[in-house]
Structures are given as structure tokens and as C-alpha cells.
Design goal:
The chain is 17% helix and 32% strand. The chain is of the alpha+beta class and 198 residues long. Strands 1, 2, 3, 4, 5, 6, 7 and 8 form an 8-stranded antiparallel β-sheet that branches. It starts with a helix and ends with a strand.
Length: 198
């Protein structure tokens, strides 16, 4: 009888120690961080904020509104080249642009909150009058509330926006090589005439 009890206690102790070894470390976080490049991602986010998230732009849409009027005598005709003097996005300022289209219109810089829940975009350049939903016949003034019908960036189409500035000008659709990455950007919309130089 004693022998059976000793055997039973020995088996129980063996089981307890085995289970203890199996569960050793439970509750400890032994996983590696999911994002090992977190500092770099934060730096990229800060850079994105500085340029108004324009690296998410749909660079190569090429869709021109049907009612947009071609410029009769633009300073930079189609297929000519010019130097971009604007920093709507990284790699743009100083790039050599080939003109893909020149149009007479009203250009607006706008601030809006994307409909997809992204962060608010401040002073986006440029939305043209023909890219506004149910636009009135005459240009909007600074501070006016408008609805966007363009898809330059994710979450833009359908967003409510405030007009920050207004320019009656020639706008250009341009192709250029990104000066930072070497990526070919085609049909970028839009660059205004005063953002180009010979």
C-alpha cells in the first residue's frame, strides 16, 4: 500500500514538473516587433505631412474634363519643355517637364478631409473649376465651400473642401522625371503657368 502511494506521488510530481516546463514563459512577450523600421516609417510620415501627402497622388490619370477649354496661345505649347518651380510633391521642384496639355481655367488650392477617413489635407494644389461638383458658372472666392470631383489623391472625390486661394490662369498637364527617384511621372495635373520657367 505504501509502495503504491509512493509510486502515485512520484507520478503526480513528474506530471506537475512536466507541465511546469511546458507552460514556462507563458505571459512573457517573446514576439519580435511587427514593424522593425518604425523610426523610418515615422520619418516618412513626417515628410508626407510636410508636402500635404502629395506622394499619394494619382500621377498618371491623364483624364481631362470634357468641358475644359484648351489654351489658344499658351506660354508653353504642347510638346515643349519647361522647368517646374513648384514643390507639390517630393522630386518635382527643378524637374524638366514636357507639356502634355495647356488649358484656360480657374485654379484653386483647397483644404479638405478625405472621404476615406485619411488625415486632413491642407492647401492642396491644384483643383480646377471643372473638377468641382455642380460648380457655379463663375469662379469661387477664397473661403468658399465646394465639393471635389477630382481623383488626384485617395479620398478626394466627393470630399467637401474650403477654397484657400484662386487663380485665373493657364494650367498645364506635364510629364517629368522625379528628381529624387528617377520615376517617370506622366500626365501630372496640374501646374500653373507661374510655376514654370523656360
Amino acid at each position: 500500500m505504501i509502495r503504491k502511494r509512493v509510486l502515485f506521488v512520484s507520478i503526480v510530481l513528474a506530471i506537475v514538473f512536466s507541465l511546469g516546463a511546458c507552460f514556462d514563459g507563458i505571459g512573457e512577450d517573446t514576439t519580435q516587433p511587427e514593424y522593425s523600421a518604425l523610426p523610418d516609417e515615422n520619418a516618412q510620415t513626417e515628410q508626407a505631412d510636410m508636402v500635404g501627402d502629395h506622394q499619394e497622388m494619382n500621377h498618371s490619370s491623364g483624364e481631362v474634363p470634357d468641358d475644359l477649354e484648351e489654351a489658344a496661345n499658351p506660354a508653353y505649347p504642347v510638346d515643349s519643355t519647361a522647368t517646374i518651380q513648384a514643390d507639390h510633391m517630393p522630386g518635382m521642384d527643378g524637374a524638366t517637364a514636357t507639356i502634355g496639355g495647356a488649358y484656360e481655367t480657374t485654379a484653386y488650392s483647397v483644404s479638405y478631409t478625405p472621404v476615406n477617413g485619411g488625415e486632413a489635407v491642407e492647401n492642396h494644389r491644384w483643383i480646377i473649376h471643372e473638377e468641382l461638383q455642380d460648380a457655379q458658372a463663375y469662379p469661387y472666392a477664397e473661403g468658399a465651400a465646394v465639393n471635389l470631383d477630382a481623383e488626384h489623391m485617395p479620398g478626394m472625390k466627393g470630399a467637401s473642401a474650403a477654397v484657400d486661394s484662386v487663380q485665373q490662369t493657364t494650367v498645364y498637364m506635364v510629364d517629368f522625371l522625379d528628381t529624387e527617384t528617377g520615376e517617370e511621372i506622366t500626365n501630372h495635373q496640374w501646374v500653373t503657368e507661374n510655376e514654370l520657367s523656360p
